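Quick one, tokens below. Sequence please?
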């Protein structure tokens, strides 16, 4: 008997019983039609609330009454966090956060007396009458995620009634899978979970649930109850006209695939996320003439009533600061902020109809501005800015360290309310920018010359960068003698340009496309309009687009920053002095100063082996990949030699350590770092970053492709310049200090460890050296998935067969010969140190 014949027989055997079961089920369900609850009796026993779905509550049972007119219509499920216990609060899971979005449709099955719920991903489009559309429908079909038995029928209203308890009380995960979707895992304990309340409105339903589980941790089991808000929102029949992304402007986007009969290949485009701003019908002609008009529906943000009153006006101002930018797109009063009044009887911070700036009482120091988006078109339906209470701690740290030397108000342990309020306004504006669809523009600050940031007039008009969407914090470049008064970032030229590009309204697609292309061409050569995509801080390729930096020259900006940091360190005790208080605030400020020093080091370092990644198009005659100019790379090495590889004693060996070490907060209380250990670890992280494989490979590749056209910085020069600094006193036969011996050990260690890693698997992660003193950051928009680079450029394939091993092994051979000649020079500790290095190197070269 052949395989296929056996398979056929098995299939028949399997199918026959199944058919019998299905037939029996159909009979049972057919007969169940007789036992349907009478609609009038159902209403009589319970309560009825009218809305998009009428909600019928009978004791503990909740029913949706779904009109036939809405069957097959697309709804968006938006699940939010409403309440969390302490354990989750500390982990950064707080009220207002969206944890799931998905599209669903309801389909009535009269044969089986059921309502099926399907879900789909609407990222594929094809013309209605094209032949390929049938294939698209077959290859991108929807999936069933839930089924409800029809409990009753309202013949007068042409609607069906279904019991929905199971999808909201934790029994089923189809509509709300909070524990998996938040990364907690575990199953819902249904006997400890229940539906709290269901509200219905003209366009959406809001269901509040309390869902419980037990989380098993090392310390034992932890009971967790999360209250969630599940919004089921009716999407418009006609999606908003999408606008396609352009790499010259930073908008969040949704990927979309387009098929049609005329293609030779599928077209892939990204739809930007933006609000549907349109002129009122009666104002269209005025709008097209260039008059400012109010939109049909303005973007409205509500201030969470739980927000402390003294900060509300500052948060509102951060929203209203964007009004002027929308005038570039032809709209006035396009964005407003208000507090809910008594007349807003339906107002609910969990209701997806309201965009709310939610205030979270939490130890977390952050803010974020995510949006709920119609994936069919990119239309932003609602946004929730999450404002964590302890964000003010980060603001205080930034301003104190970065502007304390030039601003007396920024030196106190507690700022005056107006000073903190202006900082809150800045962050509010930044987060609102995200809710409008704008991504970070980390390249914006590179447009300004460093010395212009020392100009009182310039900073008054321009702030610290052309875009508030950069992480261009406070003006650490300005010196006390400059008398700068405007130190906070502002909404700038780029922001107005981006809003015009994203929100200007057009009557047809051809007109839109032509206008937007010309708008980009018009500004393509102006550095103030430059968009620099955010990169992983672990892998900066283009040094123009870094976080927390200022100006077009990292070396010069950091030199000014070092001058100010010295002023901060000299005043650590004075600025934090409180009679009878301990040195906690002093230690925190001290750590902040060290973190800022390391930040400058990283800004400078990333110019070495850096490549300017330009967004080019055919015909613009621009170079897509430009190595950082030779002089800048050379100056960057000089900076590191001066400020890192010669450990700054003003920072690590000052009078403050008589009273406190630098410290950070931790769950176990203040964590203190001894200065020597901290200096050693932070210097080591710079060495490892400087000589990492990707950086050296970029330098080598630049030598290969660009040496004919311009002078490029070489790997040979890098090793020679660093070696000459690190072993300068050894060359002169002098004894070494503890810090100097430490620096030589760090230099040799990076070469030894890197060679060891090259000889093992490429993904070896046994040793990870990184800076643990990152200045606090805001936003959760760093990168969408993990620490991957913003541009997918491969510089590190087959490292073991590259020049990397030869370079590092060659450097070790050079050092070995040199140290053998010098091993009897210097004092006893220095000679012991040389013998140690010789043995370490020998064990690697000749194991």
């Amino acid at each position: 008997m052949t395989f296929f014949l056996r398979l056929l027989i098995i299939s028949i055997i399997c199918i026959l019983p199944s058919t019998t079961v299905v037939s029996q089920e159909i009979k049972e369900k057919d007969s169940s039609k007789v036992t349907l609850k009478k609609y009038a009796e159902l209403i009589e026993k319970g309560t009825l609330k009218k809305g998009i779905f009428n909600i019928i509550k009978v004791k503990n049972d909740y029913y949706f009454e779904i009109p036939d007119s809405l069957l097959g219509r697309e709804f968006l499920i938006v699940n939010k966090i409403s309440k969390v216990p302490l354990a989750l609060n500390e982990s950064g899971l707080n009220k207002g956060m969206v944890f799931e979005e998905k599209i669903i449709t309801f389909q009535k099955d009269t044969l089986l007396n059921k309502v099926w719920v399907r879900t789909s991903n609407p990222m594929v489009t094809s013309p209605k009458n094209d032949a390929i559309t049938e294939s698209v429908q077959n290859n991108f079909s929807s999936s069933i995620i839930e089924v409800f038995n029809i409990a009753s029928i309202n013949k007068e209203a042409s609607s069906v009634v279904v019991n929905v308890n199971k999808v909201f009380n934790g029994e089923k995960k189809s509509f709300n899978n909070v524990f998996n979707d938040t990364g907690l895992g575990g199953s819902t304990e249904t006997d400890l979970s229940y539906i709290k309340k269901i509200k219905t409105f003209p366009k959406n339903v809001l269901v509040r649930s309390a869902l419980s589980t037990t989380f098993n941790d090392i310390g034992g089991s932890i009971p967790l109850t999360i209250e969630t808000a599940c919004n089921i929102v009716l999407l418009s029949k006609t999606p908003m006209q999408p606008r396609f992304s352009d790499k010259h402007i930073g908008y969040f986007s949704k990927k979309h695939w387009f098929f049609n009969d005329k293609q030779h290949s599928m077209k892939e485009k990204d739809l930007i996320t933006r609000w549907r701003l349109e002129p009122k019908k009666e104002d269209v002609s005025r709008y097209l003439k260039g008059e400012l008009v109010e939109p049909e529906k303005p973007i409205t943000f509500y201030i969470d009533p739980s927000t402390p009153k003294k900060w509300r006006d500052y948060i509102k101002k951060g929203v209203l600061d964007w009004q002027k930018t929308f005038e570039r797109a032809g709209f006035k009063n396009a964005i407003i902020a208000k507090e809910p009044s008594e007349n807003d009887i339906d107002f609910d911070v969990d209701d997806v109809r309201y965009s709310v700036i939610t205030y979270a009482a939490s130890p977390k120091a952050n803010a974020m501005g995510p949006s709920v988006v119609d994936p069919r078109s990119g239309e932003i339906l609602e946004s929730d800015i999450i404002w964590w209470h302890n964000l003010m701690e980060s603001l205080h740290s930034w301003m104190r360290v970065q502007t304390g030397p030039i601003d007396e108000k920024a030196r106190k342990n507690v700022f005056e309310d107006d000073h903190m309020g202006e900082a809150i306004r800045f962050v509010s504006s930044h987060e609102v920018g995200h809710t409008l669809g704008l991504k970070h523009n980390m390249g914006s600050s590179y447009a300004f010359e460093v010395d212009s940031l020392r100009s009182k007039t310039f900073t008054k008009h321009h702030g610290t960068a052309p875009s508030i969407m950069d992480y261009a914090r406070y003006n650490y470049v300005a010196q006390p003698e400059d008398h700068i008064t405007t130190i906070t970032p502002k909404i700038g030229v780029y922001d107005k340009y981006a809003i015009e590009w994203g929100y200007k309204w057009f009557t047809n697609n051809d007109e839109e496309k032509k206008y937007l292309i010309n708008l980009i061409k018009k500004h393509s050569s102006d550095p103030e309009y430059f968009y620099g995509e955010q990169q992983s801080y672990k892998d900066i390729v283009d040094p123009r687009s870094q976080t927390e930096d200022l100006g077009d020259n990292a070396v010069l900006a950091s030199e000014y920053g070092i001058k100010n940091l010295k002023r901060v360190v000299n005043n650590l005790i004075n600025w934090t002095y409180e009679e009878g208080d301990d040195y906690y605030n002093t230690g925190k400020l001290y750590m902040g100063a060290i973190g800022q020093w390391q930040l400058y080091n990283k800004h400078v370092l990333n110019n070495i082996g850096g490549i300017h990644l330009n967004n080019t198009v055919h015909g613009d005659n621009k170079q897509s990949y430009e190595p950082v100019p030779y002089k800048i790379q050379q100056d960057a090495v000089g900076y590191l030699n001066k400020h890192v590889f010669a450990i700054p004693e003003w920072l690590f060996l000052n009078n403050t350590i008589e009273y406190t070490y630098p410290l950070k907060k931790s769950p176990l209380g203040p964590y203190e770092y001894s200065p020597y250990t901290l200096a050693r670890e932070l210097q080591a992280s710079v060495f490892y970053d400087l000589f990492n494989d990707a950086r050296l490979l970029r330098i080598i590749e630049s030598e290969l492709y660009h040496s004919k056209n311009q002078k490029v910085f070489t790997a040979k020069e890098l090793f020679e310049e660093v070696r000459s600094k690190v072993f300068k006193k050894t060359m002169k036969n002098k004894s070494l200090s503890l810090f100097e011996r430490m620096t030589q050990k760090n230099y040799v260690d990076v070469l030894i460890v890197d060679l060891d890693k090259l000889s093992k698997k490429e993904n070896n992660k046994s040793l990870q050296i990184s800076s643990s003193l990152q200045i606090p950051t805001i936003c959760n928009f760093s990168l969408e998935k993990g620490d991957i680079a913003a541009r997918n450029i491969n510089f590190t394939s087959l490292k073991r067969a590259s020049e990397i091993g030869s370079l590092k092994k060659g450097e070790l051979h050079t050092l070995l010969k040199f140290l053998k000649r010098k091993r009897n020079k210097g004092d006893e500790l220095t000679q012991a140190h040389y013998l140690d290095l010789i043995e370490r190197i020998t064990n690697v070269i000749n194991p």
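The mean pLDDT is 90. DSSP finds 26 helices and 24 strands in the chain.
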